[in-house]
Write a structure and sequence with these properties.
It is built from ten helices and ten strands. By secondary structure, it is of the alpha/beta class. The protein has a single domain, classed as Rossmann fold, CATH 3.40.50. The structure holds adenosine-5'-diphosphate (ADP) and magnesium ion. Adenosine-5'-diphosphate binds next to helix 1.
Length: 233
């Protein structure tokens, strides 16, 4: 479904991605791990066509469509959902308003009601404004918004960052649902245990390159890889 091949990208002259190749298939969760500053967010931004970093080489295809060079709205219209790192929301809009502004009834799009069923906490807080929400509630809302665009593939950039364990479990449960429904997910994670619990495959990034790829079980058996690239002892 999503095929990234030989992608290089740069901020100005500073190279940030080096010949990255990676695939996400339907019904598959691929976790992208790596220490801070290794280029994970940059890769996700490159896929979304945000312009910074600039893609200088390689190909990013969704099925047969080349995404490199398309405008961000054209890419999103290809049914790629994006949950950016840091959960950007509108401070003055309520939870319900954030969701209603997206309700376009596209194929496969989640309804407001379905988002509320998946995240009951959001239903309880539907009249609260963006700046009154906890970190976990913002994350649920950001995920709900992405699902309401009816994506076939979702890119999530550190969705469990800063969340309480019960909220991490809620995000993991949603990821399981998405996989069952045949969506593909590219999941950037700092939380190794969460990634190992939900992912079908894991890619590890080091200075803008994929340096290791395998299944969660294979990774658990590779203490050397965990130490060298993730600093886990
Ligand atoms: N807007 C930017 N301009 C210049 N350099 C950037 C910009 N954003 C990130 N970088 C640099 O690119 C590298 C990768 O960053 P990033 O993709 O955010 O890493 P990660 O998400 O893995 O923590 C870092 O060295 C970071 O300082
Ligand atoms: Mg990042």
């Amino acid at each position: 479904m999503l095929e990234i091949a030989g992608v290089c990208a740069a901020y100005g002259e500073a190279r940030v991605l080096n010949e990255v190749s990676m695939r996400v298939r339907e019904g598959e969760i691929v976790a992208l791990l790596g220490r801070n500053g290794m280029g994970k967010t940059s890769l996700v931004r490159a896929v979304m066509g945000l312009g910074s970093p600039r893609v200088t080489a390689g190909s990013i295809k969704l099925d047969d469509t080349q995404l490199v060079g398309l405008r961000p709205n054209r890419i999103a219209n290809r049914r790629i959902g994006y949950v950016p790192q840091g959960r950007r929301l509108f401070a003055s809009l309520t939870v319900l308003e954030h969701l209603q502004m997206l309700d376009r009834g596209r194929t496969g799009a989640w309804s407001v009601r379905r988002v509320f069923e998946a995240f009951p906490r959001l239903a309880e807080r539907q009249g609260h404004r963006g700046n009154q929400l906890s970190g976990g509630e913002r994350q649920m809302l950001a995920i709900g918004r992405a699902l309401m665009t009816g994506p076939r593939i979702v890119l999530m950039d550190e969705p469990t960052e800063g969340l309480a364990p019960v909220m991490v479990e809620a995000v993991e449960a949603i990821l399981g649902t998405l996989r069952q429904e045949g969506l593909g997910v590219l999941l950037v994670e700092q939380n190794l245990y969460s990634a190992l619990a939900v992912a079908d495959r894991v890619c590890i990034f080091e200075t803008g390159r994929v340096v290791w790829e395998g299944t969660p079980d294979e990774l658990k058996a590779r203490q050397d890889v965990l130490e060298r690239f993730l600093g886990i002892h």
